[in-house]
Fold these 4 entries.
Entry 1:
Amino acid sequence: MKDGKRIQLIHGKTLWRTALALLCAVVCACAAGRAVARESAAEREAKLRAGFLYHLAKLVTWEKDRFTDDKAPIIVGFLGDAMPELPDYFESQAPSYKAQNRDMLVRRFKLPAPDADKAVIQKRIGEIQRCHILYVPRELERDIQKFPGLFNARGTLIVGETRGFAEKQGMIGLEIVKGRIVIFVNRGNLKRGQLAVSAQFLQHAIQVDSKSEGAGTGQKNSQERQKH
């Protein structure tokens, strides 16, 4: 083979390898970009919901005996791990959060297995009931109905992610529509828990009553979250 042709061949291979390397880099960059976009969306939602919970703690009235003393923290419980960004972010901000001159403390819980020993179930429910605010992701809005004792807690504000949850046994439902939170409040369920929220808060909420029509909302929205 002549030297000229050999040089052209080597040069051609070099260009091909360079182009292939660049193509791989572009593909990897695009994949990484999509992953970051997904993470950013989850983080944005977490920050939005965390901010709401923080301000909500300022607007709720608990009976005095729900706290051991005047310095006892407001305990915010997060159920399950369907959206870990939310408790992670809230916990990272908790040192700077104060509501009603109280610190805010994060606790994470999992529901007990329905077929677990009765003593185990009662112990877990008792632990969860110590929360002042309990956040229930939409993925667990149906499962939590299997433990009616959780809804009998005095002074535990139970917050879900759908209107349907508020129309069942939840007290507040938070739906995000076009980047904004839509609030649903069940005042009957608040009264059951011996809780009150400010009139200012109620002015920005849609009030709902307990009924059965919303039973499937949590499952539907769970499927929508999984798609994204």
Entry 2:
Amino acid sequence: MAKDKNIEERKEPQQGDLGAAGPERVTTPPGDPKTAGGRRMPLGGKYLQWIIIAAVPVICAGAGFGLGRLLGPSATTDTAGTTRQAVPTQAQLARPEGAEKDSQKGWYFDVEPVVANLNEPSATRYVRAALTLEISNDLDQKKTTAFLQGNAPLLKNLLTIYLASQTIENMRGDRNLRRIQLEMLDSFNEKLFPGGAPQIKQVLFKEFAVQ
């Protein structure tokens, strides 16, 4: 009986007894991507790596866009909501030294016609107007024409808003027409050449009709 007892004590644990003996140790090859430094990488850390990799291009693109807006050519927005080109200095638009002037009075730039409803609550009345601007001969015609063409939406917007504030009585007679010319002259010079000498010499009516 003692011999049988010793044999029973030396009996090796069977496969079914592994759970009692402790968990089986699992080894992972050193090159396994799921491990880092011989340790199994947590699942959350793996996802965090992919999130960082995906976020880097987005952050770089946003930084590049912001830098481009900061360093790129600027544009200004008028109080009426019209975006206009950055105003060049008068020295940049000036006629080159020694260049012969075409005339002593200046040269002309046409503003496209606009149509605006008049400020008449009791009736629907509107005005159609087209202007011609006389520009100082001190400015280079080619460069200044390009500048004015780029700001044509601003000029039309200023003219439309101004006309829409007028009544029929405010537009009758040559005295009122001269007043409109002077007020638009001041408005255009203030917006196009702020802080400098007025470069628009006259505002002329090319077309003016009230209906």
Entry 3:
Amino acid sequence: MLIEPQFDNVNGFSKGVTPVQKAGKWGYINRAGRILIEPQFDNVYPFSGGVARVQKSGNWGYINIEGEFLIEPQFDEASDFSEGVAGVQKGYKWGYINSEGKIIIELQFDAADNFLAGVARVRKAGKLGLVSKSGLLVPPILDDHHWAAEGIIALYANGRRGLLFVKEETYIPCEYEEIAQGSDAENWVIVKKNGKWGWVDHSGKTKIPCRYDAVTPFDAEGKAWVFQFGSGFG
């Protein structure tokens, strides 16, 4: 269906709705060209999950498809909701709000990414950190990270390695030269420090100190082979 020329700017349609600009203000229309929300905003983004972020009088808030404010304009910057949470900025600091507009993670970061699989990346003073909806998981001390396996994120800081267990919301600090990416039969993780191997649990607590030249994972019977100072296995 053709829409008669009447707008200064039109974005692409998303699920049958698109932002349009007229006389310097933005609103929304449907595919039939019917105005759903009158042009009244300084800036807008497409709807996502029935919610759109809009700017009015210099501040960002969120509206529903009827044009009603779900969260009043109050932020300097804002991102789309992902997994029920959105990053927002005030005074150059980012944090997170829930769908009711309640701050669930205080505004304290230089940048805050969208949530993915229950976790989001944040930045502060040039370092990376990780948060969940319940708060800070790993403080901004990281140089890098990546998903190592389902529910497990490999951490890197100052040339050392660690692991984050997302569902448990526990992590092994970046203190190790090498680290196994999974757990053995005892739910412990093999780590290497100062050239020696040992075991820690998912919170980084030492279970067996790093004192062996080589080790094997614990088997189903709770046994592991270790090698120390050329004396053989035992």
Entry 4:
Amino acid sequence: MKIRNILLGALLCFTISTISAQDGFNFVDLINWSNGNKEHVEDVHFEEALDDEINDNAFDGNAYYKLTAKWPGEHKSLDIVNDGKNNKPILTKFNSYSGQLWKLTNVDNSNKYTLTTAWQGMSKKLDCIEGPNQNRPVLNESNNLSTIWTIVPIDNEYYRITNGMFTDQSLDIVNDSEENKIQIAETGEYHGQFWKITKVKL
């Protein structure tokens, strides 16, 4: 029995040495390679769990939300100017105006949405019309890619809202004394691009 164990040990060492010479592995590599496969499987399950978590937190397409930015603060909410054209977004003091009630309609069961208001209805979507004023969003009757917005969490409280056509541009606030003009600007760590999306109880 002792001789048999010695022979088996020698055979194992020979096998490992052969693999090492041919494939560039050593014994530690083989252990890590085996553990690495197990870790990879765990990573896959972890990513699926994160996807499930995101789906669980999807916005309710039948509800309305108010949108406020970290800057200038929650006292101002995304609204539509009542000027006859009724298509220009602006930040105003939060109230029970239907122009401040936003519906987020999911596109293709993803993190992409169209944004519409209770006031102007589902046909008029927040859009960036290509041209000289494309950085100034408006409500528009369109199905263009620019009416689709990618909404991703920045942290547990805020989201980034990025345009579907101008993919390096996010919904932002113009930094001036009025602190109420809406634009899209190059995506960055600006508090005007940190949006809180809060469900409104009607």
